[in-house]
Amino acid sequence: MNRKPESSTREINGLLSRRSLLQTASCGFGYMALMGMCGEAAARDDTYKNPLAVRPSHFKPSAKRVIFLFMQGGPPQVDTFDYKPQLQKNHGKKTGKGSLMASPFKFKPSGKSKLPISEVFPNLSKHADDLCLLNGMHTTNPAHPQATILAHTGSLNFVRPSVGSWVLYGLGTENNDLPGFITINPPNRLGGAQNYGSAFLPACFQGTPIGGQAGNSLPNLYNRQLTSGQQRKQLDLVQKMNRELRERSGVNDELDGVIESFELAFRM
Hints:
By secondary structure, the chain is an alpha+beta fold. Helices cover 32% and strands 8% of the residues. The protein contains 7 helices and 8 strands; from the N terminus they run ββαααββββααββαα. It has helices at 18-24, 29-46, 85-89, 144-153, 163-171, 228-249, 253-267, and strands spanning 11-12, 15-16, 94-95, 98-99, 107-110, 115-118, 182-184, 208-210.
């Protein structure tokens, strides 16, 4: 039985492949040049690091996500979790600016920790040992706009990153297809975008607003006139120009934020 000769990996339908041509022509110098070019391209790609990638924490975390509720106009702390025995004792006492008013609700030590919780929350008090309450917050400015910025950024007088931006900057996000920091129905006043902004951190760490003036959905996520493949080619062209601009202009946090936002929007 005659053995059929093995097909050469260098030939495709009797023709040399491009790889084989580079390997054989001019003693393989073309292939060496190609390897060098590929190595340089790989080195350039290795220098890029996703700023939103997950970062290791100092200790093993127990929480997978953070939900920060800022409830403007909510019930006062003295009626919910901040028990003031002296205020109860001095109810009705005259002061320089009026009279003291104690909470009309009763507080009850709850759980093994004996955490004082108002009767307003009878069901929540059953989970007192799973709660961590910080009653040591204070402010030097009671005005609502400044106090709102202080609650979100920790500063009254200087532009600082919001708490959500710090969390995203420090920990990153495991989901590459959704924003790592979302703000729902943010107000335009009382500090506006500063309450979810990234300040001096790169722009990719700022919050993505949904609801309110921003609308109930993210605009321009879908292009009904182009297929997904066509959109990918279109985005590749735009991103190529963005990266060329970044190389010419140097460090540009705003441009980096635009590049990351475009890629995230495409994945969504």
